[in-house]
């Protein structure tokens, strides 16, 4: 007996009223995946900070909305696109992205980009020797983390407030310093976009990471000492700043295909980190 078309399509089986086609999940129930990021600072934030003594932070995977931020001309021009992105991916909204140390922010950016676009970061770099541009690839998994914890090997003392004190070798002034935060980074970017450009960058940065000189916290005192500090003291203080600052570095050996120049290249964490071909 010849079967009808419906029998052929259903393999000879007719569904009973009790058999229902499985319904698709409600797209509104979708929850953005998250991941845990190890903080280079190990949570050495002052008491009262949401990440005080926290060695990790939970972030959400990037979304299409976050991509909109990275292409927003107004935010890019103001230099706040990266800051807004970090704020968006933080799971705990009580954390102010601008209060995070620069090294912790960089760690978040690496994980955010890797989860969004994969471990390979393909970009173009300019040779420092011949100025020719070449394609280059970084492996985001190949990065080094410094916890800013080698200060005890030097004449640097940690304070209960999470700052650090050291005595300058020539002037014997006691300087109190701290790692830079996202807010400091934004201020530097803003000044670099201004009329002065990157002039006086050494003293500007020094004024930002210095909390006090001999206990004096007034801005005019800090500015006066920083501007008139002898070079030996300045170099020592900047070295101490590097020692106390947690950081993430992503470097790779670069060889120019045009002139053969070799150099260790470091990835800058700006908007181009997410859109290298933009």
* Mean pLDDT over the full residue set: 86
Number of domains: 2
- The arrangement of helices and strands along the chain is HEEHHHHEEEEEEHHEHHEEE
Give the low-pLDDT segments: 1-12
Terminal CA distance reads 66 Å
Spatial arrangement of strands, main beta sheet: 6-7-8-9
Number of helices: 9
Query: Which shape, going by the Cα principal axes?
Result: globular
> Count the strands?
12
What's the multimeric state?
single chain
Helical content (DSSP H or I, runs of 4+): 25-40%
Based on helices, strands and strand pairing, what is the structural class? alpha+beta
Strand content: 15-25%
Radius of gyration: 26 Å
Q: Major sheet, described briefly?
A: 4 strands, antiparallel
Q: What's this entry about, in short?
A:
This protein has helices at 5-9, 64-70, 73-78, 81-89, 102-117, 182-192, 201-209, 219-228, 231-244, and strands at residues 34-38, 56-60, 120-126, 133-139, 144-146, 156-158, 164-167, 174-177, 210-213, 247-249, 251-255, 262-266. It has 278 residues and is α+β, with helices and mostly antiparallel strands. The chain folds into 2 domains: 30-145 and 248-273, no CATH class; 150-245.
């Amino acid at each position: 007996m010849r079967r009808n078309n419906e029998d052929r399509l259903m393999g000879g089986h007719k569904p009973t009223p009790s058999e229902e086609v499985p319904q698709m999940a409600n797209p509104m129930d979708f929850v953005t995946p998250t991941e845990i990021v190890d903080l280079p600072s190990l949570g050495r934030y002052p008491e009262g900070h949401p990440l005080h003594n926290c060695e990790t932070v939970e972030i959400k995977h990037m979304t299409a909305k976050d991509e909109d931020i990275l292409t927003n001309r107004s935010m890019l021009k103001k230099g706040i696109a990266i800051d807004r992105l970090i704020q968006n991916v933080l799971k705990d909204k009580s954390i102010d992205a601008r209060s995070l140390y620069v090294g912790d922010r960089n760690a978040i950016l690496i994980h955010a980009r890797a989860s969004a676009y994969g471990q390979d970061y393909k970009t173009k770099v300019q040779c420092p020797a011949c100025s020719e541009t070449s394609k280059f690839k970084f492996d985001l998994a190949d990065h080094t983390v410094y916890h800013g914890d080698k200060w005890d090997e030097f004449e640097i003392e940690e304070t209960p407030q999470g700052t650090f004190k050291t005595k300058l070798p020539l002037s014997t002034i006691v300087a109190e310093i701290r790692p830079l935060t996202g807010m400091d980074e934004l201020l530097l970017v803003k000044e670099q976009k201004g009329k002065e450009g990157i002039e006086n960058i050494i003293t500007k940065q020094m004024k930002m990471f210095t909390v006090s000189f001999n206990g004096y916290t007034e801005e005019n005192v800090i500015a006066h000492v920083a501007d008139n500090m002898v070079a030996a003291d300045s170099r020592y203080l900047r070295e101490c700043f590097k020692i106390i600052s947690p950081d993430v570095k992503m470097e790779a050996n670069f060889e120019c295909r045009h002139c053969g120049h070799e150099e260790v290249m470091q990835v800058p964490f700006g908007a181009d980190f997410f859109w290298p071909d933009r």
